[in-house]
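Notebook entry, cofactor series.
This is the third protein in the set we're modelling with a bound small molecule. For this one the ligand is NDP. I'm keeping the input format identical across the series so the outputs can be compared line by line later. Sequence and SMILES below, as received.
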Amino acid sequence: MDIKKVMVIGAGQMGSGIAQVCAQSGFDVFLNDMSEQALEKGMKNIEKLLMRAVEKERITETQKTDTLNRLHPSTTLTDAASCDVVIEAVVENMEVKAKVFAELDNITPKHAILASNTSSLPITEIAGATSRPDQVIGMHFMNPVPIMKLVEIIRGLQTSDETYQTIENMAKQLAKTSVEVSDLPGFAANRILMPMINEAVFALYEGVASVEDIDTVMKLGMNHPMGPLTLADFIGLDTCLYIMEVLYEGFGDSKYRPCPLLRKYVNAGWLGKKSGRGFYQYGD
Ligand SMILES: CC(=O)CC(=O)SCCNC(=O)CCNC(=O)[C@H](O)C(C)(C)COP(=O)(O)OP(=O)(O)OC[C@H]1O[C@@H](n2cnc3c(N)ncnc32)[C@H](O)[C@@H]1OP(=O)(O)O
Ligand SMILES: NC(=O)C1=CN([C@@H]2O[C@H](COP(=O)(O)OP(=O)(O)OC[C@H]3O[C@@H](n4cnc5c(N)ncnc54)[C@H](OP(=O)(O)O)[C@@H]3O)[C@@H](O)[C@H]2O)C=CC1
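Returned structure with ligand:
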């Protein structure tokens, strides 16, 4: 399929990054969010990153303008009626995602592929909310999207080869490297990453070391670019908790139980960098 128009749903940290990369790669993009404010924030963020890329002489002023001209803010899902591919990046919650997919199924043209950037939820179940499970697929980008090279492509039980091929080609057009992953809890990336982050939270909870020292261990001891607690704040503690819950429920294995401290922080609204406080404090 020749992809011309794309809609990205959710203008948060992932959605805005995905929309930016799609527009920079020449696709016409609707960036959709139900909140006008979130949409404005997402668009401003993209503009800031493109301005920085011009300053660093990675792109020209004309390329920046062309990219911005290809990006269209949208607050109504019906804009998806003209799209070939939709990439959903709303909150990590099955009920919310299923509702969005059911609506998209009614709005989008018959040929359209519906992809989810979910970090852990079953693609097969998301596909079950539609009448086109063969055209539903996981397209899991890594954060920050403009920088990270990987995309996990997740096949649901009924995803067709044609859908897979189209999304694999699209990932190439976005200059990403893709890997094929089965639809099992946490896929590959978060099945490996999230238990490490959760263990770091347990180490803090049990008083093994301070926040800073736990991060220093992994940065200087293992050459990770960010310590696990900084990374958790960066990903969002709500997202980390949702993923641990999916792993715990999906495998029924106590090794995936979320650390009570992680849950406590999320309940307090300490969601990490995006809310100004997590394991660290941000801003003023
Ligand atoms: C949860 C999931 O489902 C899956 C996931 O995504 S898990 C998370 C995966 N991501 C990671 O593990 C990220 C780990 N961290 C890193 O790789 C690096 O710390 C980082 C790339 C984020 C930042 O790099 P750094 O060297 O520490 O900092 P810094 O020098 O400020 O940034 C390097 C570049 O990245 C850019 N950058 C940093 N944060 C960015 C962001 N949020 N968006 C876009 N660009 C960003 C900076 O602008 C900078 O670009 P320039 O070269 O133009 O200056
Ligand atoms: N954070 C990360 O590192 C990664 C996250 N992911 C996945 O990406 C998805 C998004 O995560 P992230 O960007 O971090 O989350 P954010 O909270 O930053 O963004 C989610 C956005 O979606 C909006 N939204 C919620 N419901 C709807 C809806 N029904 N229609 C349109 N917009 C909606 C939210 O608006 P409002 O705030 O107003 O509710 C918010 O702007 C999740 O599935 C997550 O698991 C994947 C890879 C990495």
